[in-house]
Amino acid sequence: MARIQLQNVTKVFEGNVTAVSNLSLDVPDGLFMVIVGPSGCGKTTTLRMIAGLEKPTAGNIYIANALVNNVPPKDRDVAMVFQNYALYPHMTVYQNMAFALKVRRFPKAEINQKVAETAGLLGIEHLLDRKPSALSGGQRQRVALGRAIVRNPKAFLFDEPLSNLDAKLRAAMRAELKALHKRLRAASIYVTHDQAEAMTLGDRIAVMCDGVLQQSAAPMEVYEKPANRFVAGFIGSPPMNFFMGRLQFNDDAACFVMGDETITLPQCLKKVLADYRDREMVLGIRPESLSPNQFAGQHNNTISANVEMIEPLGAATHFHLTSRTGIQFVACFNPNIKLNVTDAVKINIDLQKVHIFEPGETGKNVVLSE
Length: 370
Description:
By secondary structure, the protein is α+β, with helices and mostly antiparallel strands. The chain has helices at 43-51, 93-103, 108-122, 137-149, 167-184, 195-201, 219-224, 229-234, 270-273, and strands spanning 4-13, 17-27, 32-36, 58-63, 66-67, 78-81, 155-159, 187-192, 204-209, 212-217, 241-250, 253-258, 261-264, 279-285, 290-291, 302-312, 317-323, 328-333, 344-349, 355-357.
């Protein structure tokens, strides 16, 4: 087992296209790191550089404290699980799982033992004589995992391995992967664009945008304390709502002004917001931090809006609204709340859960300076 470290890693492709820029990550042995971000953000390129399938333009990559920039993929002792499974179609499940061990000239008895143990771990021992064409998507994914596990590598790399599965099977496989990692305790890096996978699987999440690391922290820290507007909008479903406005001070209280409505912000934010007086800023609030009812001990915290659409989801109902200033946003309410489309409502903000961002896609969360 091994620690994986990336130090100021950059990858520039032909045409001066920068896929990854000055990326530093530290994945200790036993940690499950999830790299998440939209398509084209550089997460798969990062994984391929760790595996040795791409060479970094600048920076260093270490596996088990050894510099591996010029080490061939076969000598890095990492196992990669691909999105499309990458199984040999002409081989049986047993042969697919045993292939890497045969290449390394393991004794036949040891190969049989390792394949049997791994197949039992994944519940595919009854599939060993089948070929990939006779397997379902979930079974193929288990075989791909088994082929990686049987090698007992220093680290595991996962490139969106669940994206080809249906929603129900994807959720089941997430749970299995998490349980599997607890048993193997190897350093693992998992790439996905699905923020739900990132939140449920990762011990730590690294959020990327346009090749740049935006934030790396525990899942709930990323959710509750997003470093910037991009992270706040990418992590969470529905995503955080954003309101454009101006930060002002009235009677020594920090206020957020949107058109003819004013939100009085908590006193604890007064000091950190002082440097942003009279500036255009962005107010961020998650859908579950909104309510048609007043929050205890809070006042001057309402937004006037009209209900545009209602989505009942069982445990909660999502209300799509438009504010008086024309900003569309989503509120997540208890299903017992009864509102109708076109209703004019006053929506209350939980002032203890607000975020204030600088303008721009990656404007920083100034509340974190508190």
